[in-house]
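> @MW can you paste both from yesterday?
MW: sure, first one:
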Amino acid sequence: MPPVRQTPRRAAALAGEKDLSGRPVRELVGLLAAVEDGLRETRFLVHRRGVMAANPDVAPLLARERAVVAELRTRRFSQGVDHNPGHASGGRPTAATGPSPLLD
């Protein structure tokens, strides 16, 4: 796999600003996409001292991905989104929703 070209935007996205709470949701989604691109382009195993070992560049990317997803989840919960629209509260059933009860 050829080396990944680091653009200034990608480097900033992957740099790992600790406080994500001030960022808008759209920016967080873009940041998550950049981190996932970085993970796809990074080899998980590399040769180190003649053996295959975990790439040390992967751990910070995974930590960044977890932080962004956690922030997106807090936004979702804080906005009062209906998390199970197929439940008794109404809405369209989801694949995880069981069959509707038979009514007489």
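MW: second:
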Amino acid sequence: MKQQIKTLCIPRIKQEFTKRFIRSTVDKCGFGQIQSIIERPLRNDKQYKKVVIRLIVDKYSKNGTYLQYNTDNGITLKIAYNDFEYWRLISVDW
């Protein structure tokens, strides 16, 4: 079977978050296997950056199917990394 690869973006995230923290937080969601994480600074705000994540979706897990369905239908996901703080996760596979 063909693997489904998704490219996701967190458009605004504080500079203080490391790749290791981002990877562990997204891994806890159980969407699939992360291939790469790319960080880019925002042009207008040096305190923030955007993050692009490529992952292989696990289509046999509940969360992988949830990610696949929502990103295919243009629905933004939210990942809570702290009690009341979250990141928006947007699909860039159009």
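> thanks! The chain is about 25% helix and 45% strand.
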